[in-house]
Amino acid sequence: MIAPTQQLDTPIGSDMNAPETESAQAKLEIDASKTPVTASLYICGRNALIQAPLRITEMAVEIAIERSRATEALKARDATVQRLVEAHESVQQKSASIELLQRSLKSRVNPPLTSDSPTPIDRLEATKTKEEIVRLKRTIVELRVEIRTLRENAANSVEMSQALSEFGSESKSLSDLSSE
Fold first, then answer.
1. Is 2 buried (19+), middle (13-18) or exposed (0-12) by CB count in 10 A?
2. What are phi and psi of 119, to 5 degrees?
3. Tens digits of per-residue pLDDT, 112-128?
4. For every residue of the chain, which 3-state class applies, written as one string?
């Protein structure tokens, strides 16, 4: 059996390259693990390796928790990035729409005198449209005059029919008087 003082006196990692030191170190570890007192003394010299299995499991749990937190943080970051990308795309689309509407409004208010000015075909169509508008306005005026004339004629015919009916009743009464 190895004395506890021998184990404590041997520093860890001293002269690890020597083959006999490695084998001696391995023998010390095996011997230390066989007896409880020697093992505890040996472990105390080796930073409490007996408590290490419990501490290792605690550390493994802590590491797993930290990994899950890191995973959650990465997922939250990815979701935020995705939302930002969607918002950026939406803003770009809306900016393009606004710019298009502003250009359209400017072209309506101040027609450009550049190559975008009306072509002869456009001018011809505009002239035809204006002529059609004038012709339709003239037709509307003529129809209004005709409607007024028809109303006057209808009123005259009503007056005429009333006059005739009065005349007819007077002539009847005269013929009745003359026949008596």
1. middle
2. -85, 165
3. 555 567 777 888 888 88
4. CCCHHHHHHCCCCCCCCCHHHHHHHHHHHHHHHHCHHHHHHHHHHCCCCCCHHHHHHHHHHHHHHHHHHHHHHHHHHHHHHHHHHHHHHHHHHHHHHHHHHHHHHHHHHCCCCCCCCCCHHHHHHHHHHHHHHHHHHHHHHHHHHHHHHHHHHHHHHHHHHHHHHHHHHHHHHHHHHHHC
pTM of the model: 0.31
Per-residue pLDDT of 5-53, as tens digits, reads 444 444 444 444 444 566 666 666 666 555 554 444 454 555 555 566 7
Q: Cα(64)–Cα(70) distance, rounded to whole angstroms? A: 10
Query: Cα–Cα distances in Å, from 26 out to 15, 30, 33?
Result: 13, 6, 11
